[in-house]
Amino acid sequence: MAPSTFVAKIDLKLSEKLKGDLEGMGFSLSSPPYTLFSAQKKGVSCTLYESGKLTVQGKEKDEFITCYLEPEILKSFDYSYPHAYVDRRARIGIDEAGKGDFFGPLCIAGVQAGEDKVAELLDLGVRDSKKMADSVVLAVAKKIRSRFPHAIVRISPNKYNELYERFKNLNHLLAWGHATAISDLVSETGCKEVIIDKFASEHLVTSAVAKKGLTIHLEQRVRAEEDVVVAAASIVARAHFLEQLAILGAEFGMELPKGAANHVIEAGKAFVAKHGRESLRKVAKLHFKTTDLVLSNHA
Question: What percent of the chain has pLDDT over 70?
Answer without folding.
Answer: 96
